[in-house]
Write a structure and sequence with these properties.
- It is a single chain.
- 76% of the residues lie in helices and 0% in strands.
- The protein is mostly helical.
- The chain has one domain.
- 22% of the residues are buried.
Length: 173
């Protein structure tokens, strides 16, 4: 089966009437949970993406509160949290919201995860998120750069003090 190009799909969608478009959207939302979540975001939450980010944080907070003591299990749980954050940030399409969610993740990680562990995968998860934030920050508006940069610096300082194998020199702005 041949999949059409996006431009062809756009032309075809423009030619359809509104009833047919609604029917197609509902059919898409029936088959995949992600499609339904994206459609819900676009219809109800896209007007205020930062409020949506707060709702995502509230949804994920219990996951941090119930982290396992086992490094292996907590690594799996944290990877799941990262997947959810990435998915919801992708729905918004906003680097500002993505940065806010990643900074929140790093704060929660330092508060609830076992930062004194020797389990390398757990430590690498944190480092990758810090690297991702560091790459995004220069692309943001200068007001956001200042606000998020301050939080980022505080996280780096706290991580340097609490985590055994964290070298903060490579992550400073």
């Amino acid at each position: 089966m041949k999949v059409e190009k996006l431009s062809d799909l756009k032309k075809e969608l423009k030619s359809l009437n509104s009833e047919r478009l609604v029917e197609i959207c509902l059919k898409l939302s029936k088959y995949k949970k992600e499609n339904k979540e994206l459609l819900s975001y676009l219809l109800f939450d896209s007007t205020n993406p930062f409020l949506y980010a707060e709702n995502v944080k509230e949804m994920l907070k219990p996951s941090f509160l119930s982290l396992s003591r086992s490094s292996y299990t907590s690594t799996k749980e944290i990877r799941k949290i990262i997947r959810l954050i990435t998915k919801h940030a992708k729905y918004t399409g906003s680097k500002e919201v993505e940065t806010e969610l990643l900074l929140w993740f790093c704060e929660q990680f330092l508060e609830y995860a076992d930062t004194r562990t020797h389990h390398k995968p757990l430590l690498l998860i944190f480092s990758r998120q810090i690297e991702k934030i560091k790459r995004i920050l220069p692309k943001l508006h200068e007001d956001f750069q200042f606000d998020f940069g301050t939080t980022y610096t505080q996280i780096i300082q706290k991580a340097g003090a609490e985590m055994r194998f964290f070298d903060k020199s490579g992550f400073e702005l």
